Amino acid sequence: MRATGLILALCIPLSACGAVAGGVQQFGAGLGAAATAPLDDFNLRRQYIPTVLLQAEANPYDLRNLNQCATIGAEIARLNEALGPDTDEPPAQDGSFLSERAADAASAAALDAIRDATTDFIPGRSWIRQLSGAEQHSRHVQSAIQSGRMRRAFLKGTGMQRNCAPPAAPGWFRPRGRSQR
Question: What is the pTM of this model?
Answer without folding.
Answer: 0.62
